[in-house]
Amino acid sequence: MSITLITPVWNNAGTVADCIRSINRQTVKCQHIIVDGGSTDGTQDVIERERAEGSTFISEPDRGMYDAINKGIALAEGEIVGVLNSDDFYPTDDALELVEKAFEKPEVSASYGDLYYVDRENPEKVVRNWRSGEYQPKKFYNGWMPPHPTFFLRRELYKRHGGYRLDLGSAADYELMLRMLLKHDTTAAYVPRVLVHMRTAGMSNASFKNRVRANRSDRKAWAVNEIKPKPWTLLAKPLGKVGQWLG
Predict the structure, then answer these.
(1) Which residues are 152's β-sheet partners?
(2) What is the pLDDT of residues 110-150, one digit of tens each?
(3) Number of domains forming the structure of the chain
């Protein structure tokens, strides 16, 4: 069983090394595809210095993070595909080993785990605790979603159902997981471990205005899949993050 990891990056010279090193330390080796949007801050120099022999690195203008991920999916050779953003890193060396074990059951076509948000300047400091729990389709209707950086999918499902939509802004990952798990009833395995540490400063939560925009995109994510959310679904989604702070 083989794994492909895709890292989209743009002007992230300060964090991309941690991301790449955490992948290089994994006990299970993978195909690593790094897609840079044409960085100008020294990111490319860091990538060339840190990336493993045999990894793929392309740098060219793109239409944002999800366009970069789609480029990586097109180049993926692994049976299983995951995304690790340049701000994120694996805190342990066995993260991919745990993912690989989750896919040993032939009926499993997706997996995800737990995630810690960590302070951007002090990544040893945990800010939020995202515990996912076992997957049940009804959870989506209550505002649930798995942490995207921990989400892995069999590559054949991208071929069958498509990649990330570029018209949904920060909700593109939400829409993809909603489409794959709920609409297409994909069997998902929960890995009850913190697989990823994610630095704070998420795109959809940067301001109230962004949150309103994200809510509209979330609503569209349901509409394009022709699934009707419950009246409380889109309100419950951001409110569910309160527990992450308390946890």
Answers:
(1) 82, 111
(2) 999 999 999 999 999 999 999 999 999 999 999 999 999 99
(3) 1
* Upper half-sphere CA count for residue 21 (Cβ side, 13 Å): 8
Residue 12 domain boundaries: 3-246
Tokens of 35: 């897609």
* pTM for this prediction: 0.93
Closest to 221 measured CA to CA, from 136, 148, 155, 126: 148
Beta strands in the chain (DSSP E): 3-9, 31-36, 56-59, 80-83, 88-89, 110-118, 126-130, 152-154, 188-199
Q: Helix axis angle, 16-24 relative to 43-50, nearest 10°?
A: 10
Q: What is the CATH number of the domain that holds 33?
A: 3.90.550.10
Task: Report how far residue 133's alpha carbon sits from residue 189's, in angstroms, rounded to the nearest whole number.
Answer: 10
